[in-house]
Amino acid sequence: xxxxSSHMGPVDxxxxxxGTTAAACDGKGPAIVHWLLTEGxxxxxxxxxxxxxxxxxxxxxxxLGRCSLSLNLLHPQIRAMSYYWRGTGAxxxxxxxxxxxxxxxxxxxxxxxxxxxxxxxxxxxxxRLTPPWPYPVLGELRDQGLTDYAAMAMRFSDGRLxxxxxxxxxxxxxxxxxxxxxxxxxxAFAAVLELKALHRLSTTVLDTYxxxxxxxxxxxxxxxxxxxxxxxxxxxxxxxxxxxxxADRLPREELIALLNGYFEVMGGAVEDSDxxxxxxxxxxxxxxxxxxxxxxxxxADRLACGRALDAAEAALEGMRRLNAERAAWGQPTLRCxxxxxxxxxxxxxxxxxxxxxxxxxxxxxxxxxxxxxxCKRLDRPLLASAAVAAGCDDRLRxxxxxxVRGLAEPxxxxxxxxxxxx
Length: 422
Hints:
It is a single chain. By secondary structure, the protein is α+β, with helices and mostly antiparallel strands. Strands 7, 8, 9, 10, 11, 12, 13 and 14 form an 8-stranded mixed beta sheet that branches. A 6-stranded antiparallel beta sheet has the order 3-2-1-6-5-4. Strand 1 and strand 2 form a beta hairpin. Helix 3 runs parallel beside helix 8.
């Protein structure tokens, strides 16, 4: 085993082997760097980019049989991404959840030695090694017929460490020239990977904090204040009953866990039915179920109404399961109210010059909020407007006309037909 500092001059022949290959010494290294910084940047995603690079290395005479990437991410649920190329053209991508950095498999890996222990590069002649293996993965790679393995650090501009590994099954392993070519192209490789990782990060952050459709609009350049478009959609608003009392008596950590569990049920049901969460407001959630792109008319309305009602029923079932778990642990059970209304809104970029928000505005938004406030008064977990009921056949039934704050005339609301009248 030997180690060098990658990106800092030629690879040490004593550490990384002797001999040269003509392919690595005839200018193909600079050609690969040029490809990385030009054509390589244009690949749509990291798997396609990694596959194309590995094939180019093989074409350049580097006997690559396996390549992997371990990339640290900034993501609320994912700690890292691992990518594996094994010479078949299909790149396997694996999400690593937070906590993986404390797992036994990770701690006993060359990746941990680089990311956590400061190694810059590591090289193992697998065909010369015998058990016990310095790292368990080396035995697995040896069993797969690989003869040589090198792991190298890649540092992004923000200081985050990432790792690339390269392995071959050629007898004798990599030559010095092979490793010089790989080491020489690493800075360009890391630069392009960072661009792709940042694009993934921006997409992930936008999807997480503003929603998938809104995030796509922002990335497409729709960022100017005051821009917007008419949108026909089913609006969803829900909130918890008695949340103020719970907030007064529960410890902060328990209250946050309660809200996360509640929003996981509500938000999961919305997203499973192709709705989009617009915002959380305390214990309330506002979401939309837009009509399909280009669709209009009664059939499109019925489709959106059906999706929204499916989501609402799934959310109520999810709340029943959640409450059963909470009761089993001696925790207070939760009650919620969900309101649905179909209408036309303005979906746009609104706010101050330095703090913008994509949201929906219009009378339909006000009405769904007023309908939701009736849930408590009528003791119903779900209420819908007549516009939604018209698109849901016999799944809803009228609960009569009721006055609502801010409107001169009462509104007719509907509840689930299967729900008994209180």
